[in-house]
Amino acid sequence: MDEPGTVFYLIPENEEALEIVDHEANSSRRRVDPSNVSRRFLRIGLDQPAKIPSRLVTFGRFHFTNDIILHKFPNTDQCYFDFHPITGELLLHDISKDDDTQLFKIGKDNKKAEEQICTSPRRCVVLLDKEWIFEIDKAVFRLIPRRAATDQDNAAFASERLAFVHQIPDEFRTFEWTIERLDAMGIQSDRSTMTGKGYNLRRRHPDGLKPGEELRCVERALLGSGGQGDVHRVVHLDTGDHYAQKTIRWRVMPEWGIYNESDYKARLLKEVNLVKKAAHPNIVPYLFHQGWELGKKVKLFMPVYDGNLYTLLRHLRHTAPDVIHSTIERMLHKMLLVLDHVHKQGIIHRDIKPANILFRGGDFFLTDFGVAKFVDKSVTLMGTEWYAAPEVLLQYAEQTPEVDIYSLGATLVDCYGGGIANFRHT
């Protein structure tokens, strides 16, 4: 049975690691297997006070700043674990001068496989649903996360990690403040200072990716499926950021003259550029995109939102009518601002509907420009029939920005009429 508050255990795999476990300075974190008293290991938990409050645990030679003492190691600062302040993902940071901290996948032969720290600054996510090989110079540990048998256990574990982040004192909430304070006391290495100051949550624009560079991500949950493909919540393995990743399934589209993968991707790239051109605080952006080479799946990365208009009003169905009405009015105001913005640029969306209006907190965002295009008197039937304007359904009539206003009106009727708003009575 795991002790309450446990995050992971470090099981020594060689003599160098066992020597770290047995060092007297590490006795408070040392545990003994009751079924095998010769088996000793380290426990890392949320309930164990850290020398640096913003971190879970720090490894190094210097007692003043480190929690696990590496008394025979040359590095004053070796590495540390902390949690992403927004997502709660566990992160390992290598701050050694020799880049000799590493995390490895465990292969089929029960031996270390691919390295996980492969970027600068040197850090990676430690997924807590599997075991890892954790190396500090020559010391080798097996990192075993706390057991979570059910989805409820996983949710509780995630809540505990975020609660840990939220209780960090304000003065330790930024790495810059922490590093500067330690540096002023003369007890922080140059490498640690450099790494700490390199940590931030700012996102890079898609154009910031180098040619051929791709995000290393792992899928966490299915958020939805549509005509273009599936959308998953993913974790970026180098930063701990979460994204909504849309994986595109290419298909033949005779209505657009698309009969092969190359043409489809060229059309899709136009959508990406369209969203970039239409940039607005209430339009869902594409933060990254990759997979444009033939034979690869295109992946579009967006922020994660709380849900769409349907899910929000379902959630509010048992609340007072004035709450629902104020929510709808706020949505309408934001969508009118967005449509005014894109229409002035000569863009029509052509698929306004509740499923394409996302929310986060009290704000609303328009997504899915997959059928949008510049105004060109198109007569192609696109969009969702229930919300489509007559000229879209008739196909032969000229389509103008007014089709979006019609669809937004249909969405409003759905909210107030026999559609979404009546979920509160079901």
From TrEMBL:
<comment type="similarity">
    <text>Belongs to the protein kinase superfamily. Ser/Thr protein kinase family. GCN2 subfamily.</text>
</comment>
<keyword id="KW-0418">Kinase</keyword>
<dbReference type="GO" id="GO:0005829">
    <property type="term" value="C:cytosol"/>
</dbReference>
<keyword id="KW-0808">Transferase</keyword>
<dbReference type="InterPro" id="IPR050339">
    <property type="entry name" value="CC_SR_Kinase"/>
</dbReference>
<keyword id="KW-0547">Nucleotide-binding</keyword>
<dbReference type="GO" id="GO:0051301">
    <property type="term" value="P:cell division"/>
</dbReference>
<keyword id="KW-0132">Cell division</keyword>
<feature type="domain" description="Protein kinase">
    <location>
        <begin position="217"/>
        <end position="426"/>
    </location>
</feature>
<dbReference type="GO" id="GO:0004694">
    <property type="term" value="F:eukaryotic translation initiation factor 2alpha kinase activity"/>
</dbReference>
<dbReference type="InterPro" id="IPR008271">
    <property type="entry name" value="Ser/Thr_kinase_AS"/>
</dbReference>
<dbReference type="Pfam" id="PF00069">
    <property type="entry name" value="Pkinase"/>
</dbReference>
<dbReference type="InterPro" id="IPR011009">
    <property type="entry name" value="Kinase-like_dom_sf"/>
</dbReference>
<keyword id="KW-0067">ATP-binding</keyword>
<dbReference type="GO" id="GO:0005524">
    <property type="term" value="F:ATP binding"/>
</dbReference>
<dbReference type="InterPro" id="IPR000719">
    <property type="entry name" value="Prot_kinase_dom"/>
</dbReference>
<dbReference type="GO" id="GO:0005634">
    <property type="term" value="C:nucleus"/>
</dbReference>
<keyword id="KW-0131">Cell cycle</keyword>
<protein>
    <submittedName>
        <fullName>Cell division control protein 15</fullName>
    </submittedName>
</protein>
